[in-house]
Amino acid sequence: MPITALNPGQQKASGIASDGAKPAPKQLAMRYDARAKVTGTAKYAGEFRAPTDAVYAFVVQSTIPSGSIASIDQAAATKSSGVLAVITPFNAPKLPPANPQPPARRHITVLQEREIFYNGQPVAVVVARSLPEAIQAASLLRITYRQTAAKLRFRERLGEARPPKFPGREPAAQTRGDLAAAMSKGTVRVEQTYTTPYQHHNPMEPHATLAWWEGGKLNVYDSTQYIAGDCMTIARTLGIPTDNVHLECPYTGGGFGCKGSTWSHVILAAMAAKVVGKPVKLTLERPQMWGPVGGRPTTVQQIKLAATQDGKITGVQHDVIVHTSLMEDFLEPSADQTRMLYASEACATSHKMVDMNLGVATFMRAPGESTGTAALETAMDELALALKMDPVQLRLTNYAEKDPGSDKPWSSKHLRECYEQAGERFGWSKRNPQPASMREGNKLIGWGMATATYPANRSAAQALVRILTNGHAFVGCGSQDLGTGTYTIMAQTAGDTLGIDPRLVEAKLGDSTLPKAPASGGSQSAASICPAISAAAMQAKLKVAQLAINDPESPLHGAIVADISASDGRLFLSSSPGSSDSYADILSRNGGKPVEALGSTEPGEDSTAMSTHSFGAVFAEVAVDAETYMVEVRRIVATYDIGTLINDTTGINQLEGGIVWGVGFALHEESHLDETYGRYVNANLAEYHVPVNADIGKLDVTVLNIPDIKFNPLGARGIGEIGITGTAAAVGNAIFHATGKRIRNFPITLDKLMNA
Ligand code: MOS
């Protein structure tokens, strides 16, 4: 994969004295966990064993969307082979009244109520010797319900949309400037409605929990994106101190947001373990991934754009309606990027929600920006067409030199270079702007583009770094690796700062006893934990340097700290590189014990004074069959401005994964809701379509690699989510260019193209 390295600082050694200029990180070429993954020694939550044999729990789900449970006859189930317990709202242990849980104002259904909020809600747990016995017994439960009318027809109830009860990361509605006046100045207008479907995350590894009690202490293996938050939610829900929960998750088999919070099954596993007095394993089956563990809300987005003849946008209006559950509000903030992406005189955005008898929606890869850019960047393409202007030129004409929403300066923004570099690699200048003008035999060829963007987030984090007597090192951090590369960048960052080959660094994460890290969500892990690791490594290195300075036998004896640098497992004098001493020798002469330090970092003081975002430009080529309307995505060329790329292998792979999801968003992904019974009818991976290799053509992903030092000392912004943004619109815009048909409701399937 070609990487464009434009990193200004390519120095190698990492000096103790830091002058603020960041040398390029010494990369770990192979994924840290590659061997464990390919040899199958990497263990996931459902694969662990407890100290004593575990029994199995199966979650029984409601078969109605709305009402209450009248009775449960469990006689036959209880007598069934191997059954240890049948737990229902009628006999479940009573939990303390709900506490505020992370994220705030959660409502998880854990058999404390008889009320039914959605079809698929957990209504009982059967615990048995084996999983087949638990499933068999579950089928013997006789549950009677009192049904009430369900709210399931979203499109028919848009008139009932209401503002969210609680604010999100930004206000739900915002107006800047005089919208009516600005709109009337624009003589070229676009006014359209775009829709996006229900989607469900479906990482390869379904949710799984293994729980057992030792007295008042709870041990849990859980597949999670947020060890510390999971512990906190479990503890608060069960009414025990957080320190009494020990949670481990060395590998997370994908998350994409659905493992960012704690769902019913985790609590139910712990509850079942208490009831039967044995370790309990609870793994969700694939169809159970539709409903009880979150999903992306469906959206209806109305966009109005007005521009003058020369392409200057005067007014923007973006009004979003999403669905929400009856249990709690979750807002997909699809209009947030509209506030910051382009300059305009006035901008009004709003979000409203419609109550539905469905499971709670949650963060799903690039919550807000994925659905929001699908709509906004399609509208921009429509505006370019109306103006007879090149789509890239339209975006450059309205380039935002500072954040128009907050009026703050960017920490760093190089979106212009992204358009330029990706456009060049794509060959955009050769595009004939006329729709349906490019043809190869039976194939209609189309080229489209869009802008990508996602906020750069960062939270407080802690990490431990230990220099070992053999000259190797250890780095520990209570973070998570979703397959994203956390292990790799942990080892790399520690090794880079210590001047120790990253291949000699052992990395440990996924354990609640390790120093605290934030959720692996919001694309923030690298930007949060790497500074903490770097700070810890710096301190550990200083401690060893001090030992050497005080050691008459060391060639560094009496040196000044500022003169000491590290490389290849040795400390040396910058002024006289021949004078050096290895970590191993220094430690063996000075007590023969490892030296360690804890690093603790948080966002910089000026983090609220600037606007921090990543950007990118995505170009797509599609070939559409003129008769069947089968769409083939031939190539995607994208360039991103994400600050420093910490690791080429894992970083580019992250961006590619996001793009693949963007293609799925454009063409495939959709959960089909049965609007009478409230179940998703395609709750399996055969009928819930995601892209396979054959659906993805050539990917050409590059990054500018320009450090954003104002955002964090490593200059790195997150990359987990930006890849999905913009991609859906780029593909849709290419389809329009190929066919002259504009599909405004995602996914763009053959039937919609055929009937357009
Ligand atoms: Mo991501 S949707 O913030 O896990």
Can you put this structure into words, describing what you see?
It is a single chain. It is globular and about 80 Å long. The protein has a 7-stranded mixed β-sheet, sandwiched between helices. A 5-stranded mixed β-sheet has the order 8-16-15-14-9, with helices on both faces. The chain folds into 3 domains: 14-30 and 459-602, Aldehyde Oxidoreductase, domain 4, CATH 3.30.365; 46-149 and 201-289, Aldehyde oxidase/xanthine dehydrogenase, molybdopterin binding domain (Aldehyde Oxidoreductase, domain 4); 368-457 and 608-755, Aldehyde oxidase/xanthine dehydrogenase, molybdopterin binding domain (Aldehyde Oxidoreductase, domain 4), CATH 3.30.365. By secondary structure, it is α+β, with helices and mostly antiparallel strands. 24% of the residues lie in helices and 24% in strands. Dioxothiomolybdenum(VI) ion (MOS) binds at residues 225, 255-257, 260, 363-365, 367, 521-522.
How would you summarize what this structure contains?
The chain is an alpha+beta fold and 756 residues long. The chain is built from 16 helices and 28 strands. The protein folds into three domains: 14-30 and 459-602, 2-Layer Sandwich (Aldehyde Oxidoreductase, domain 4); 46-149 and 201-289, Aldehyde oxidase/xanthine dehydrogenase, molybdopterin binding domain (Aldehyde Oxidoreductase, domain 4, 2-Layer Sandwich); 368-457 and 608-755, Aldehyde Oxidoreductase, domain 4.
